[in-house]
Specification:
272 residues; mainly alpha; 2 domains; 73% helix; 0% strand
Length: 272
């Protein structure tokens, strides 16, 4: 009887174990079915889980790659800028400097040639005047008139005669016009003393003008300024009378009283 109860109890235990085993299989099957219904086998689920865990790392790798690419582009741009900044421009600068130097030398040569041409023209005019003077009875009167040195060049010429003419005109209406007289004389190849001296003979250095700014009794002309008048008068002397004073010039300039005009004007020229 006891043996029978033992066998029954043993059979019950076995049955329980079997039941538990079956339940485990059912549960496992249900779980597997659930995962399978969600989209794949247990192996696929496990793989999905790994991928899911790995996804942030992949995204981080992608972001890092983007930053790396951006940094690489910035680095390339910086390298290009640096390369451009470091480009050797010395040859371009040298070319510009060489052209400027060549232009400067060309301008100096042109100015020198112009001065030489001016001096040559003046010397020719002086020679022509000497030929006329040699035929005049008043030749000896011109002996005391010092020669004008044109070989010093334009700037030195204007500086010297500006000072001398300003001293001569001081206190008169024409005061301060020395540079205008000197520049006009150089530009027209005329004795720089001639026009200022005539202004004294004709109008006491502009104090008694018969027309506005006409200090020389020059035709029926009038001007709006001393500068305009001086330039016109000196140019007129050059074109009508030549380089400097002669007695023949006095006869043409002031026919009624040529001798007095000549002597007075010449005396003033000698004082400048």
């Amino acid at each position: 009887m006891a043996s029978k109860r033992y066998k029954q109890r043993k059979s019950s235990i076995v049955a329980k174990v079997a039941a538990v085993g079956c339940a485990s299989l059912v549960v496992a099957g249900g779980i597997g079915f659930g995962f399978a219904s969600a989209g794949g086998s247990a192996q696929e689920v496990n793989a999905f889980g790994i991928d899911a865990l790995s996804a942030p790392a992949s995204e981080s790798s992608l972001t890092l790659a983007n930053y790396t690419s951006s940094d690489s582009q910035d680095s390339h741009a910086n390298t290009a800028l640096t390369t451009t900044a470091k480009r050797d421009i010395s040859k371009g600068i040298q070319a510009i400097e060489a052209k400027e130097e060549a232009d400067r030398k060309a301008a100096e040569e042109a100015a020198r040639a112009e001065e030489e041409a001016r001096v040559a023209a003046v010397e020719s005019a002086k020679a022509q005047q000497q030929a006329v003077v040699s035929q005049e009875a008043t030749t000896s009167a011109l002996d005391g008139l010092a020669d004008v040195d044109w070989s010093v060049g334009r700037d030195a010429f204007i500086a010297e005669w500006t000072a001398r003419i300003d001293a001569y005109l001081a206190g008169s209406p024409l005061a301060g016009q020395g540079v205008t007289f000197a520049t006009a004389a150089w530009d027209n190849g005329v004795d720089p003393r001639w026009s200022p001296a005539i202004s004294n003979t004709e109008s006491t250095k502009g104090a008694h003008c018969f027309l506005p700014c006409n200090a020389w009794g020059w035709g029926q002309s009038s001007w709006g300024s001393w500068e305009e008048a001086i330039n016109a008068h000196v140019a007129g002397l050059a074109s009508v009378y030549g380089y400097s004073i002669t007695y023949n010039a006095a006869v043409t300039y002031c026919p009624p009283n040529a001798a007095h005009w000549f002597a007075s004007t010449l005396a003033q020229m000698k004082s400048i």
